[in-house]
Write a structure and sequence with these properties.
Layout (H helix, E strand, L loop, with lengths): L2 H4 L1 H14 L12 E8 L2 E16 L2 E4 L5 E6 L6 E2 L4 E5 L2 H35 L6 H33 L2 E3 L4 E6 L6 E2 L6 E5 L3 E7 L12 E5 L8 E8 L10 E7 L11 E18 L4 E2 L4 E7 L2 E5 L2 E2 L6 E6 L6 E3 L11 E8 L3
Parallel strand pairs: 1-22
Antiparallel strand pairs: 1-21, 2-11, 2-15, 3-10, 4-6, 4-9, 5-8, 6-7, 8-10, 11-14, 12-13, 12-15, 13-14, 15-20, 16-17, 17-18, 19-20
Helix pairs in contact: 3-4
């Protein structure tokens, strides 16, 4: 094979390589590389500390159904899940014995009143004639003592009658609250006494969310603090709430603090045991620095921002609070009027030269 065909391709390659070697390389850019970035000025303003916790819906107030007298249940007029109003009849007890007791108490009152009237008349007569000396002092004192004894007996008889009448009234058990029956533990014919638990009524519109707040937030919770409550059981609904209970110590297992929030549920949409989210809303704090969350950069589990100093980015690690989705409060490391970077942060590092492409007047 002729040499020209055997080595021809290599000759062409070497010729091209030599031609490229004679071409001048493209000039490298001179000076520092500028990163275009948007910045904002840090300014004081109003900041409301809002944070969230989770919990369960529970009754805020319950009425335990019971009786005041021992008797036998004649009729049960409530069932579990039933809505009741104030004054609704829940139970009727056998009133036969109590009716007889009331009749006996009434007879005792009538007897005591007759004796009282007689002794009073005698005492008043003796009192008038004692002054004339017709009767002895001993006779007068005896009539006086009889009158006082009759007075006391009448009072005791009236008290016994009132008690018997109240006991008879107690054979009809009525609801003192409006709400929903959540328990029924009684049947007709059952013997009951005042120590028995016969049922439970959840008071209407009285609900509480028992939530748990972390130790980093608990010092920002106070009695009467406003809150918003939502629940997957009532999608699209928001309920006004108010803190009415704050635990003084954390639960050992979790380190969280139990916080009770009263909920306004006039529509009766929330039910016992539903899960709920509580957004606590603190009072606005004036002159509080806050920065956009977009300015934060995670550098090895350290949140930093880049402050602009003479068109150069300088890394700063501020002291931050718990913010919301858009803003984060600043407690140290930055001052009012500082300029910080909020865009193209992936291209920025400590010492990067910056070219501003826009600046908002405040963070």
């Amino acid at each position: 094979m002729p040499l020209i065909f055997r080595y021809g391709p290599w000759i062409v390659f070497l010729a091209l390589l030599q031609a490229c070697a004679k071409t001048d390389p493209a000039p490298l850019p001179s000076g520092p590389v500028l990163v275009e970035a948007q910045t904002v000025l840090v300014q004081p303003g109003s900041w409301a500390r809002n944070f969230k916790s989770y919990g369960l819906v529970t009754p805020a107030e319950e009425y335990e159904i019971g009786v005041e007298v021992s008797s036998t249940v004649k009729e049960v007029l409530f069932r579990e899940g039933q809505a009741v109003e104030v004054g609704d009849l829940l139970l009727r007890l056998d009133a036969k014995k109590l009716t007889l007791r009331l009749e006996g108490a009434l007879a005792s009152v009538e007897e005591a009143r007759a004796n009282f009237e007689q002794t009073r008349s005698t005492h008043e007569r003796n009192e008038s004639i004692y002054k004339t000396g017709v009767i002895s002092e001993q006779t007068y004192r005896q009539s006086e003592a009889a009158y006082k004894s009759a007075t006391a007996n009448l009072r005791r008889a009236v008290s016994a009658f009132d008690i018997a009448r109240e006991e008879l009234d107690d054979t009809e058990v009525k609801s003192p609250v409006s709400g929903v029956v959540t328990e029924r533990n009684i049947e007709t014919g059952q013997s009951v006494s005042p120590v028995d638990h016969l049922g439970l009524i959840r008071v209407q519109d009285a609900l509480r969310v028992e939530s748990f707040v972390s130790q980093k937030d608990i010092n920002h919770v106070s009695m009467g603090m406003q809150a918003l409550v939502t629940s997957p059981g009532a999608p699209g609904q928001t309920f006004a709430g108010r803190v009415d209970q704050v635990a003084s110590s954390a639960e050992p297992a979790t380190g969280n603090f139990e916080v009770g929030v009263l909920v306004d549920d006039s529509g009766n949409l929330l039910k016992d045991g539903m899960s709920a989210m509580v957004e606590f809303r603190g009072a606005p704090q004036r002159s509080m620095l806050a920065i956009p969350r977009a300015a934060l950069v995670d550098r090895g589990r350290r949140l930093i921002v880049y402050r602009v100093e003479d068109d150069v980015a300088r890394a700063v690690e501020p002291t931050l609070g718990v913010g919301n989705a858009e803003m984060v409060p600043v407690y140290g490391g930055l001052a009012s009027g500082d300029e910080i970077v909020v865009s193209n942060l992936r291209l920025v590092s400590d010492g990067t030269q910056l070219k501003r492409i826009g600046q908002n007047p405040e963070g």
